[in-house]
Structures are given as C-alpha cells and as structure tokens.
Design goal:
Blueprint lengths: L1 E7 L13 H18 L11 H4 E8 L8 E8 L7 E7 L5 E9 L35 H7 L2 E7 L13 H17 L11 E12 L8 E11 L4 E9 L5 E13 L4 E2 L4 H8 L7
Antiparallel strand pairs: 1-3, 2-5, 2-7, 3-4, 4-5, 6-8, 7-10, 8-9, 9-10, 10-11
Helix pairs in contact: 1-4
C-alpha cells in the first residue's frame, strides 16, 4: 500500500470516550483515499469532488482506538473484490497498529493498468466481518420506516461548510450527523436507572450505501433502530432521508459495543439488558 496521508489526533476531534470520533476517522480516511487516487494517476485533482457522487458503497472497520496526539499515517491501495475496488487505512505510527480502515466502491475508475494489492498483502483486517450485506430497509419511505420501528433521532439542514466545492455533503459528515444523533437513540433504550459515567459506546464496523447525495441547504432526517443484540455486540440500522424529496440518501448498518471507559474494553450486557433490548429490535425484512 502507498503512503498518502500523515497527521495526528487533535483534541477537538475526540469525543466523550476520549478517543478520535468516527467522523474524523473517516475524514482522515477521505484524505487518504483522495490523495491516493491522485497519486496513483487514477484521478485528476480537479475531479476530487466528483468522488462524492461516484462513491456508492463504503465499509469501515475501527480496529484500535486513536487517542489524543496519536501520530497517524494513511495508506491507499487498489483491491480486487466483488463489492469494492479501493481501500484506505490509518495506522498509528507509535504502535504500528491499524487504527481504522475503509473499503470503497468508486464508479468509473479505470483500473486496467492499476497496481492491485497482491494476496500476500493481507487485507483480512479490512474485509467485512460482522456485516455481510447492505441494510435491507433502503427501499422504505420514511413513514414506512417509522411504522417498521425506526425512530427519528436526528434532523437539521446541511450547511455549506460541511460540503465540497460542488455543494455535495462530504462523506465523513454523513457519519458525523449520525454520530451526533446517537444519544437520542440510546435515551429511548434506557431503563430509568442513572447513566454510568464510566460507560460509553464504540463502533466496530460501519457499512454505508449511498443513493441520492445530500447537498447544501437540504433538510434531512435520520431514523434509526437496533436490529440485533448479543452479549458483547449490538447492531444498528440507520436511514437518512432528504425531507424535500422524501428519498433515502443513505442506508447504514453498524456493529457497536458498550465500552468500559476505565478499562478501555468492551462490556458484556447483563441478561436482563439483553432481554429488554431484544424486545425493542426492529424486525429484519
């Protein structure tokens, strides 16, 4: 893989878990992707904004925490896969660990002469693990999604500073808008007990399918729900709708854990919590 980005974790990029928030992981992955495509001769610099409409699918995995001031380097490569054609990943230069990775499907890339990663350069850590396919709810209208059990957790209007020069919403800001909305989803799952200040939530895997890009001044609504519960991991579904057109702009499937912020590891849900949350799950289509 080719080095195409270097940077670090800033304090304003960290969240309540005191690690790099997913939106900024993805912003750095975007830097890695776009710079890598240009450096490989697969994209001209003046075509970068076109990636926002040409990227149809993204599968991200978050392998290790990136804490404040961690030095990160981004690497890019071309892959042979049924669903994806390029990969980007961030590595922590201090530890050598992969911090996060993302596979992308970018349309209209001429890859005939591209240098494809050899099988020996294992990408097992980046391949889908807990999510095998796109979320199957994207064909629903918003009223149908709400009737299915999705809950409205986010809404607002897309601002110019969130968009590229083309006026389309940057990919990492889809993740940011969902991330901002998650406390509204979790509050609907609470059992009335006081929140544990030493507990948080962390995403392990996130699969997105892009349909109709959002643009500056578009109003949007995020509807979400839990779709599976296990002792260690929970799965969530998210749909993002354009209010004016009523079209689905994004469907997303996420695998996450509750996190012990002192021990810095995943927590196991009690049997009672598993039973209670399972009763709130959305039925899969």
């Amino acid at each position: 893989m080719e080095l195409s980005y270097r940077g670090s974790v800033n304090s304003w990029e960290c969240d309540e878990n005191n690690h790099l928030n997913v939106r900024f992981c993805e912003q750095k992955l975007w830097q890695t992707l776009s710079t890598g495509l240009i450096g490989s001769g697969l994209l001209r610099a003046n075509e970068v904004d076109s990636l926002l409409s040409r990227t149809t699918r993204q599968h991200s995995r978050f392998q290790n925490e990136s804490r404040l001031a961690a030095p990160l380097s981004g690497y890019f490569g071309v892959v042979q896969h049924d669903e994806f054609n390029v990969v980007a990943e961030l590595r922590n230069d201090a530890t050598g660990e992969v911090a996060c990775s993302a596979l992308y499907q970018v349309a209209d890339l001429s890859l005939a002469n591209a240098s494809v990663l050899e099988p020996a350069q294992s990408l097992t850590h980046a391949l889908p693990r807990g999510i095998a396919q796109d979320l199957p709810f994207a064909q629903l209208t918003m009223p149908q999604a709400l009737a299915q059990g999705f809950r409205p957790i986010g809404q607002g209007i897309i601002q110019a500073e969130e968009c590229a020069g083309s006026g389309l919403l940057m990919l990492h800001n889809y993740m940011g808008r969902i991330s901002d909305s998650m406390p509204h989803l979790w509050s609907g799952f609470e059992d009335g007990s006081a929140p544990d200040p030493d507990e948080g939530g962390a995403v392990l895997e996130f699969r997105k399918r892009f349909y109709n890009p959002l643009a500056v001044s578009d109003r949007y609504v995020v509807v979400s729900g839990m779709i599976d519960v296990a002792p260690k991991v929970q799965q969530f579904g998210h749909l993002m709708f354009n209010v004016e057109t009523q079209q689905c702009s994004l469907s997303a499937h996420a695998v996450a854990v509750r996190m012990d912020l002192v021990a810095r590891k995943a927590k196991t849900l009690s049997l009672g919590d598993q039973t209670r949350l399972s009763a709130l799950c959305i039925e899969r289509l």
